[in-house]
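Meet the record:
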Amino acid sequence: MLSAQQPLELRLRADQTFEGFIGAPGRGGARACQLAQRLATGRERTPLYLWGPPASGKTHLLSAALAAAQAHGLRGACLPLRELGAAGVVEAVRDFEQFALVCVDDLDAVAGDEPAELALFHLYDRLRTGGGRLIVTGSATPTALGLRRPELRSRLGWGVICHLEPLGDTDKRALLLRRAAEQGLTLAEPVADYLLRHHSRDLRDLLATLDRLERATLAAQRHPTLPFVRELLAAADAP
């Protein structure tokens, strides 16, 4: 069983940084990024709750926060509740107040399970008493998430609540072009447009395709031209 001696961590990616975060237009993403950075570096104590649909950047910000905390010599840990499940939460959160930053991902995965909710409520209070910081993510606001423990809803409402929205196609296109440049891949704008039109629009899938494209171009010693990309995607879709 997991304990604070074996903290769960997000699968940190080098590209999931605060500098690499592109939020949808509006104040929510920019404010969330700024507050998460302040929490991660010890300059803020107010808990942060991030909510929004998949691919809106919640996990990106948690990963960036943990990496920033580590860079500043602060101990951080993550509770990925969808992986843990409600039954694993009670044991997992023991002694987690020793961490300077705790990131709780996917609160909706245990919403409605009273023992798990109560364990998270007590963790919140222990962190607050001990000076630790907390960032929580969910698919909806605390009041709309289906939580059964009113004290947990109340505690989450004490902090800052930020709504994150998924990127539109224009922002996804900009992200693809920038990520490709960072990987040393010369991606023409028509190729990026083709990926958006003819491939999954899910951001995780798009970035995974970009990684596959990078490996394929290196192996074939070819540039990522439109015919090459069509060939690659056709081969991937073939039975």
Notes: The beta strands are 48-51, 76-80, 101-105, 133-138, 160-163.
